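ARCHIVE CARD
CATEGORY: sequence design from structure
SOURCE FIELD: tokenized fold
FIELD CONTENT:
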């Protein structure tokens, strides 16, 4: 019993745990940590969704086991959303499964389709479950560029020619967590063409479909002709309706893949609590002004973040979508790396962010900043950071103190 179990052994150390531990210790000592790390929405769930939950809880028999693949009314509501939003028609009985959040959906899809040694193409950097779900299932990850462009498409072609066995599946995530990249239909068309040519499954994570800041909403890969032959798409209600703790999401698309996921799920769970599913259907079928309001709030927070942090001496590119900013490390701190910088920022400025290296080795040199505090707190974070930069010498020509601080932290972690 001394060795790690097989699936546990395949998982790398959880980078975020180091920052989380420091955050908990600081709070225990009374520090007022401004937490821009975890993407945990702070906005309240809309009243009409809560009301439907409460109403349903009081009805007879709703305390019983639910349906693993989702109650029929919820699957119909998701199909109606896809037709309304994307112009995509889905059969709610064969092409829609309700999941316990998109994360669970991805993990169980990996269990359903992956044999030991199967090659999965996953972007780097990316949300951890996109790779770790397949690692736990015995698969092998081949990394490809995260940006939705020619470089990624060329990397897929190389993988087809040089991977043994050939790739089984290709993970797409747009709008992307953590980078906030957004794909267009032209990219998706090329992805579908390559997938069909080389018999690759496409797994699209569209969790941030409704959190966007431009005029054009992000598309679904299922809008592409022929995509239904090779693709499954995962969505989540966590960010769209501020329902993260409710654990409600969906997988939709190719019937064979949806059937495989549904079969695996049938052995593992009885679905979400029925009142949650009923309330989720009410969210999808009801007024959508709450979604527009959430989008407006995130847009305003993004604007405040970019302006306030810029004045503090940290230039951050404005993200076009998601509730995250993908921020390059300030020049004076780049040598220390994203994990050491995140720890230093927590200790000296009382601001928590997520180290980019936690999303893959290509995330090194960046941190992810979540828009989960109000505008006043974001401005306070900027003031704390500016004070820290000034004290460290990072704002002056001589940034030696910043380098010394980073070297000391690296030595401490060695």
């Amino acid at each position: 019993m001394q060795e790690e179990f097989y699936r546990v052994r395949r998982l790398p150390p959880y980078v975020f745990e180091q920052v989380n531990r420091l955050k908990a210790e600081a709070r225990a000592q009374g520090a007022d940590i401004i937490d821009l790390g975890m993407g945990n929405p702070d906005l309240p769930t809309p009243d009409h969704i809560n009301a439907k939950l409460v109403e349903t809880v009081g009805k007879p028999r709703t305390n019983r086991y639910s349906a693993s693949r989702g109650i029929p009314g919820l699957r119909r509501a998701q199909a109606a959303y896809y037709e309304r939003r994307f112009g995509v028609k889905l059969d709610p009985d064969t092409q829609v499964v309700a999941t316990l959040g998109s994360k669970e959906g991805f993990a169980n899809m990996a269990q359903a389709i992956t044999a030991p040694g199967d090659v999965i193409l996953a972007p780097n950097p990316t949300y951890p479950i996109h790779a770790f779900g397949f690692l736990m299932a015995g698969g092998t990850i081949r990394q490809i560029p995260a940006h939705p462009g020619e470089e990624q498409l060329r990397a897929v072609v190389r993988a087809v020619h040089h991977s043994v066995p050939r790739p089984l599946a290709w993970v797409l995530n747009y709008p992307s967590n953590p980078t906030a990249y957004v794909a267009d239909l032209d990219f998706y068309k090329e992805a579908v063409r390559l997938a069909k040519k080389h018999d690759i499954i496409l797994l699209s994570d569209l969790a941030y479909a409704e959190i966007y800041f431009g005029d054009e909403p992000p598309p679904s890969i299922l809008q592409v002709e022929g995509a239904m032959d090779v693709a499954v798409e995962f969505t989540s209600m966590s960010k769209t309706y501020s329902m993260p703790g409710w654990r409600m999401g969906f997988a939709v698309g190719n019937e064979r893949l949806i059937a495989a996921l549904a079969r695996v799920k049938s052995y593992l769970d009885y679905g979400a609590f029925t009142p949650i599913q009923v309330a989720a259907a009410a969210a999808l079928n009801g007024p959508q002004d709450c979604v527009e309001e959430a989008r407006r709030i995130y847009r305003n927070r993004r604007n405040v973040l970019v302006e306030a942090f810029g004045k503090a001496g940290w230039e951050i590119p404005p993200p076009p979508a998601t509730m995250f900013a993908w921020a390059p490390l300030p020049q004076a701190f780049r040598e220390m790396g994203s994990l050491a910088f995140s720890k230093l920022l927590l200790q000296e400025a009382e601001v928590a962010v997520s180290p980019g290296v936690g999303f893959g080795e290509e995330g090194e040199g960046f941190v992810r900043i979540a828009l989960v505090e109000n505008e006043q707190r974001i401005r306070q974070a900027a003031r704390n950071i500016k004070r820290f930069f000034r004290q460290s010498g990072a704002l002056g020509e001589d940034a030696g103190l910043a380098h010394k601080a980073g070297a000391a932290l690296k030595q401490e972690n060695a």
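CARD ANNOTATION: The chain has a mean pLDDT of 92. The chain is about 45% helix and 15% strand.
SHELF: design records, drawer C
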